[in-house]
């Protein structure tokens, strides 16, 4: 990691000023676009929950466009009524509202919206039901250049539309593998590289893990923030398993599917790494509190004592844009943090599985918008989508510290540093499973079947049950829970394997 080439200009506090100063620039860029029609008109944008007075949505997406186009009034309409559940539980046995179905009702309503803002998981369903306009014709006609858009974003969107584009996403977030160079140098091991498999990363982790007790350096963690308790590992290992698309239950949500070779391999791999102490071990919080109090008393308190990566005790960790920002700021202010040693670091692409080549753990496409097939104002709808996915908008939003714009030209290392920024867009999103998304909407508490698995994972990691027997127990208990959910979609799942009172509010 090289030192910054120049001082940080300003931090987040100056973002508002930057945005303000950029507005006239964007306005100037917008001039000469060929649109001389000053007729006043309305552009309606449908969202899942944002309403007409939502300040965040307007600041994020519409204010600059409205500034540039004062004759276009933007109306924001919400598909869901947040007050329905905010002021009371869903009545027992009443079928929960499906957000996707509510959006479809709005799209097909008497006063249909022009633009549809949606989640990535919703995209295939709306495309299959012919509710979105294909954007390729407009893109070709206007020669709208997408060659600079992150391949993971374009390929992810095209995969939902059978090779065609029905929506665009101006920003995205993803994970990378963050590593501390020192443990590798100490062990004489080469640094990780882009395109490695999970097995290769775990092999590196074994080679750099060393020491005992408080002096141990661990090889890998799914998070740099928390030590690896059984509970954390159970949920965090989803980063490893998600690209494999292992299902917890079948398409009709009446039968569990965890009693399988695939699930057994995932659990066995995680448990073996835990036994080898490759993952950071759980914190003794009583001891940690004592050390923290003692450090504060003698003026040597280190705010990263509970963070294994920032404490130099973890060689590799999954990270995101905001974790890098914390690391950059800590290194820059190291002289003011007693007990903190600056970390020489870099990043590489997320590891992948050979059977799911190129697919990373968590790539999220944000701000997805498409044009309603029944749009009343399709021209302005395209104009708006083109604007927020264009270079001017990307240049402005690239100043944000926690989000990545979709155009690679404006994805640059922060503060003049040199690190492998391309790692953020080297993998593709996990393919959408529309049927699974529908089931989670139809049965809001079905995710608790996953939580049930915790107790069986503990039995396997503690050695009181074999991995396969633990999975069989989860399968049996989960089957009973799914049966009850069919009878009452709002039921709360009893974590012991039964069902509790059916009075839960959808989540």
TrEMBL record:
One Pfam family linked to the record: SBP_bac_8
Asked if the Swiss-Prot or TrEMBL record annotates the protein with the keyword Nuclease, the reply is no
Does Signal count among this protein's keywords?
Answer: yes
Query: Where does the protein principally reside?
Result: other
Indicate where this protein resides in the cell.
Answer: Cell envelope
Q: Which UniProt keywords apply?
A: Signal, Transport
Q: Which domain of life is it from?
A: Bacteria
The record, for Gene3D superfamilies, names: Periplasmic binding protein-like II
**PROSITE patterns assigned:** PROKAR_LIPOPROTEIN
Q: Which residues form the signal peptide?
A: 1-27
Q: State the family named in the UniProt similarity comment for this chain.
A: Belongs to the bacterial solute-binding protein 1 family.
Name under which the protein is recorded: Extracellular solute-binding protein
């Amino acid at each position: 990691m090289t030192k910054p080439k120049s001082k940080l200009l300003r931090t987040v506090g100056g973002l508002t000023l930057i945005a303000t100063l950029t507005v006239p620039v964007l306005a100037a860029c917008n001039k000469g676009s060929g649109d001389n029609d000053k007729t006043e008109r309305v552009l309606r944008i449908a969202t899942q929950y944002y309403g007409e007075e939502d300040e965040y949505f307007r600041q994020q997406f519409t204010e600059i466009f409205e500034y540039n186009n004062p004759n276009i009034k933007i109306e924001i309409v919400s598909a869901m009524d947040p007050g329905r559940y905010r002021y009371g539980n869903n009545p027992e046995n009443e079928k929960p509202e499906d957000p996707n179905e509510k959006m479809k009702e709005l799209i097909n309503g008497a006063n249909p919206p022009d633009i549809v803002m949606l989640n990535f998981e919703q995209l295939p369903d709306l495309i299959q039901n012919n509710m979105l306009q294909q954007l390729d014709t407009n893109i070709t006609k206007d020669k709208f250049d997408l060659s600079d858009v992150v391949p993971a974003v374009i390929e992810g969107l095209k995969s939902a539309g059978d090779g065609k584009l029905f929506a665009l996403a101006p920003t995205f977030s993803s994970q990378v593998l963050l590593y501390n160079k020192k443990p590798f140098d100490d062990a004489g091991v080469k640094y990780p590289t882009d395109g490695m498999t999970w097995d290769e990363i775990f092999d590196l982790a074994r080679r750099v893990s060393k020491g005992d007790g408080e002096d141990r350096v661990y090889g890998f963690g799914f998070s740099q923030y928390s030590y690896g308790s059984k509970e954390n590992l159970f949920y965090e290992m989803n980063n490893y398993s998600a690209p494999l698309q292992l299902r917890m239950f079948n398409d009709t949500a009446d039968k569990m599917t965890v009693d399988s070779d695939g699930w057994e391999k995932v659990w066995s791999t995680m448990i073996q790494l835990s036994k080898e102490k490759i993952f950071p071990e759980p914190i003794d919080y009583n001891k940690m509190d004592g050390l923290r109090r003692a450090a504060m008393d003698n003026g040597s308190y280190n705010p990263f004592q509970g963070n294994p990566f920032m404490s130099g005790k973890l060689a590799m960790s999954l990270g995101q844009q905001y974790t890098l920002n914390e690391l950059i700021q800590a290194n820059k202010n190291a002289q003011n943090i007693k007990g903190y040693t600056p970390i020489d670091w870099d990043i590489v692409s997320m590891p992948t599985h050979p059977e799911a080549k190129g697919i990373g753990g968590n790539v999220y496409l944000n701000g997805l918008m498409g044009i309603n097939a029944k749009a009343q104002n399709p021209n302005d709808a395209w104009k708006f989508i083109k604007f927020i996915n264009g270079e001017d908008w990307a240049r402005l939003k690239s100043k944000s510290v926690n989000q990545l714009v979709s155009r690679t030209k404006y994805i640059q290392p922060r503060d003049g540093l040199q690190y492998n920024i391309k790692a953020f867009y080297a993998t593709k999103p996990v393919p959408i499973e529309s049927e699974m998304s529908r089931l989670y909407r139809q049965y809001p508490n079905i995710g608790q079947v996953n939580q049930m698995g915790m107790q069986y994972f503990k039995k396997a990691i503690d050695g009181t049950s074999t991995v396969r027997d633990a999975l069989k127990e989860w399968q049996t208990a989960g089957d009973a829970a799914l049966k009850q959910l069919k009878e009452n979609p709002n039921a709360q799942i009893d974590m012991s394997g039964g069902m509790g009172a059916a009075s839960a509010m959808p989540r």
